[in-house]
Design a protein that fits this description.
By secondary structure, the chain is mainly α. The chain is 82% helix and 0% strand.
Length: 334
């Protein structure tokens, strides 16, 4: 019983808040590493950027800018829009972030691109159910679901249109045109990294704002730093997987897919609804390939991704619920 008392003292008050912050930063780190492929992978796979280190540095830099200047709406949604703010306990907040971070890290280790937005929101819901908190099913959750379903569809349609437009403009690829398209693809990938910061940072640090620890902009800046460190320290595996193992595009279709992905996810971020950069990318790639009548996706890799999209959110929700219940009972914190 004395051991349980010690643990209860450690996981209470300021110590528990510290654990929540550390879990959120850990989640931000995993997001940064996980999405290197969805942002700069296309430029790396096309040979526009030959150094994986440089690709990860670009992800870090542009994600930090997006997180600092445009993540506020998503920070607000994740921090206060899913659960009743007054009913969120310190233990529940810590469990949400820790669960999301661990599930994301596991998928990064297995090189499975997933939706960190979906698993983060389901981790929040799982802990919320465990706490008995009010969950805004008919407002926020419904709009999040519509966003997640619509993301790959809208991205697909945009990429289809962009590819047809690009093919009508660039009918022949000359050396000059190749350089122009390469530069445009690199710029589009950097824009995707910026969008990553705007769209996904709130998943990791929204709870900081929800607990009243900081402002949305400061939370975004802190999360952006964590994401940047994640990209530079563990971003290469997913960069290699997405850039060279999943996508097969030329410069025109690659640029179209990347712009469709970024515009779709950026719009969702401005509306305050976090969505999946990976799902937006897959939709964009499918649309770009469809405009040419091409098969642009590795079917085996795509099957892994689709499976993980359904499996990991459910896993995150159940783990978050179970972990909250266990810790709550063991530590005597309710």
């Amino acid at each position: 019983m004395e051991i349980l008392t010690v643990f209860s003292d450690v996981f209470s008050g300021d110590a528990l808040t510290t654990c929540t912050v550390l879990s959120g930063l850990f989640f931000g780190w995993t997001i940064g590493s996980h999405y290197t492929g969805a942002t700069l992978g296309m430029a790396y796979g096309a040979g526009v950027i030959k150094s994986p280190r440089l690709a990860c540095i670009l992800v870090a830099a542009f994600a930090l800018m997006g997180a600092t200047f445009e993540s506020g709406n998503v920070v607000n949604t994740v921090g206060t829009g899913i659960l009743e703010k007054s009913q969120v306990t310190d233990l529940g907040a810590m469990v949400m972030m820790l669960t999301a971070a661990l599930v994301t890290a596991a998928n990064t280790w297995m090189r499975w691109p997933v939706s960190t937005s979906q698993l983060a929101c389901f981790a929040v819901v799982g802990a919320g159910v465990g706490m008995g908190a009010t969950i805004f099913w008919q407002t926020t959750i419904v709009f999040l679901f519509v966003t997640w379903v619509g993301t790959p569809v809208i991205s697909c349609l945009l990429a289809f249109v962009f590819t047809r437009m690009g093919d009508s403009v660039f009918k022949t690829i000359t050396p000059t045109t190749h350089k122009l398209l390469s530069a445009a693809l690199l710029a589009a990938c950097c824009y995707a990294a910026y969008t990553l910061g705007a769209n996904n940072t709130g998943n990791a640090v929204g709870i900081f704002y929800g607990l009243g620890l900081t402002t949305p902009m400061k939370a975004g800046f802190i999360g952006g730093i964590a994401m940047g460190i994640g990209a530079m320290t563990w971003g290469k595996p997913i960069l290699e997987k997405v850039g060279k193992g999943i996508l097969h595009l030329d410069l025109t279709t690659g640029l179209s897919a990347k712009m469709a992905q970024s515009l779709t996810a950026h719009t969702a971020a401005m509306l305050g609804y976090p969505t999946s950069m990976n799902q937006a990318l897959i939709g964009g790639v499918a649309g770009a390939g469809g405009a040419r009548g091409l098969k642009t996706l590795n079917k085996k890799a795509l099957a892994e991704i689709v499976f993980s999209w359904f499996f990991t959110p459910a896993l995150a929700g159940n783990v978050s619920y179970a972990l909250y219940k266990v810790l709550s009972a063991v530590l005597g914190i309710h």
